[in-house]
Write a structure and sequence with these properties.
The chain has 217 residues and is of the alpha/beta class. The chain has a single domain, classed as Rossmann fold. The protein is 28% helix and 17% strand. It has six helices and eight strands. Strands 2-1-5-6-7-8 form a six-stranded parallel β-sheet, with helices on both faces. It is globular, with a radius of gyration of 16 Å. It starts with a strand and ends with a helix.
Length: 217
């Protein structure tokens, strides 16, 4: 059985290479099931931002998928805003990745990347992005965007099979925010772990990932 190809969408202040490093344990855990392909967001995050989100490692700059504060070019998951900036550029970057590196069976996102994945799935189901053809989504530490212009993504529950992963000790995206995203999906599967803001990949989690993935193989 060939592994499923999954497009990986990193979190805010990360990039493709730093997210690859942070998901090494997941790649090892599911190496027979998944081939993970990483891309980097188009928006550069300034280093002067002072928040609790860890910064990217490696040579690449920290990046993001949209800014909730247009003036400061910064992002906070809790920030209420009417308009954001950068989202269209990020959608274009995913479209280009699907064309040049696809096809992909599924999409996996972490933190801001998981919130972005929900938007990508909405665009796919509304047939607004014809290149997108994801069969499943994995959202780790996901949340509903607090930005007014993004509420259009949550009007109809999404049919795509989804696995929502979140930690009870997550201080960056509290589990209550991840739970708020669940009703936006028709039949969400849930993996809750006792830890914080990371992609869990302990042996204890393997079965849950495999049970979710096996119907796509």
């Amino acid at each position: 059985m060939a592994p499923l190809r999954v497009l990986c969408i990193h979190g805010y202040r990360q990039n493709g290479s730093s997210f690859r490093e942070k998901t090494g344990a997941l790649r090892k855990l599911l190496k027979k099931q998944l081939e993970l392909v990483y891309i980097t967001a188009p928006l550069t995050v300034s280093n002067v931002e002072n928040n609790s989100v860890p910064t990217a490692g490696g040579d690449e700059e920290p990046r993001g998928w949209w800014f909730s504060d247009i003036q400061a070019r910064s992002f906070s998951a809790q920030q209420q805003c009417e308009k954001s900036s950068g989202l269209d550029d990020s959608i274009s970057a995913v479209r280009e990745a699907v064309k040049t590196q696809g096809p992909f069976d599924g999409v996996l996102g972490f933190s801001q990347g998981a919130a972005f994945v929900a938007m990508l799935c909405s665009l796919q189901e509304q047939k607004l992005e014809l290149e997108f053809n994801f069969r499943f989504a994995i959202l780790v530490a996901g949340f509903r965007s607090a930005c007014e212009e993004h509420q259009k993504f949550y009007e109809v529950p999404l049919q795509i099979p989804s696995l929502h992963v979140f930690g009870l000790e997550d201080r960056v995206i509290p589990d209550s925010m991840s739970r708020d995203l669940l009703p936006c999906f028709q039949d969400p599967q849930v993996l809750i772990h006792p830890g914080g803001h990371f992609v869990p990949a302990a042996a204890a989690h393997r079965q849950m990932y495999q049970d979710f993935l096996k119907r796509f193989q």
